[in-house]
Write the structure tokens for this entry.
Amino acid sequence: MSTLTSGGAVAPGTEAPAYPTDRGGCPFRQPAGLAEFRDRAPVARATFASGREGWLATGHAEVRAILRDPRFSVRIPGSLHESADVVKHLPGRGSLLWQDGEEHDSDRRLLAREFTVRRMNLLRPNIQRIVDEHIDRMLAARAPVDLVKMFAVPVPSAVISDLFGVPEDVREDFQSGAEAMMALNTDPEALAAAGMRVSMIVYQVIQRKRAEPGDDLISGLLALPDPEGVLTDEFLVTMASTLLIAAHDTTACMIGLGTALLLDNPDQLALLRERPDLVPGAVEEMLRYLSIAQRGAERVAVEDVEIAGVTIKAGDQVAVHIPGANLDPAISEGAEDFDVTRRPTPHVAFGFGSHQCIGQQLARIELQVVFETLLRRLPGLALAKPIDQIPFRDEMVFYGVHELPVTF
Ligand code: HEM
């Protein structure tokens, strides 16, 4: 039996209710039980797929409060969403996602010098060229084609590989390793092997860049002054692997899932075709509504924290639910609905606080170019199969579609 008290704690002698995962037939909606959790308590106890109990934060204000609070660490002992036998191998220094405090801030500052808004904006013409080339290839193929395979995956892969100077001959190998690392149900050995493969590829790229520097981000990092000797091969491999993986899967998922969403919502699609000036706002709305970081972020309290009427004790783990926060009615009226004309919202699709996504400007530019160009150049774009026959990525860290057969 499960009973939550009004504050979100569990009544003595009862179990916490199960973390909801069933999207109830509509692949674009979040699990119905999520709103119930939030209505009952924005921070509540839940039982996760690992079999363990933890806290589930679903309110927008509470999610932001936790993500900016230094009393929560990213160094979780194991994910609440993975089966208990998946052992977390925390990478060493250089992986921002697994670092706290001053070490994280100083490594992030280092990277931020190479990841400026100016540099990202300069990439726009190259992104447009890459998008156009991939649309040309789709048009040259005989429809139906799989938009994921021909467009959603290779476009971000080419963009980030160009930015990092990854040579053509290893791009495909890198992509398959990165994908294996992002599956929620990958067995521990396969996960470790994929991690090793990705690190080896990145190591080789770094060696090539040391010998022959170019105009790319890795060469830029290698050229930074380094009086304290932080920029070792190990540090660079960890940092570059984290970035490359974070950049590949996320943007690819947004392109595939965002296209499926538009094709399943003909009114919104027609509006965007008529008014391409709405595309930047529509991208924000897709980021918010789809919230592809479907299980959110995870943190562990390093000291007792009072929030929303409950005490999260030191050592307790919290699933900080990004979709829950982004669909909170407090963020915008009718937040459960998809509306490309929605006024800007303070969504947390890129996280919040010190770990907020460092690649968000790049992702935004890519998605804006992708959707503007896709709608302009493929006026007849349509699903080649009914939506209920499309395989969705329920089992992956980032939600999306495994394939999207389309005609044009
Ligand atoms: C639509 C695409 C993307 C989405 C939805 C997304 C989402 C996120 C989220 C939610 C976080 C915060 C995780 C946490 O707090 O635990 C994050 C962090 C991060 N993202 Fe992204 N991301 C996207 C694209 C990218 C791209 C293109 C890059 C790199 C070029 C990137 C690199 C990173 C890195 C390095 C972090 C860790 C930052 C830190 O810990 O300081 N992401 N992302």
Observations:
- The chain has one domain: 32-407.
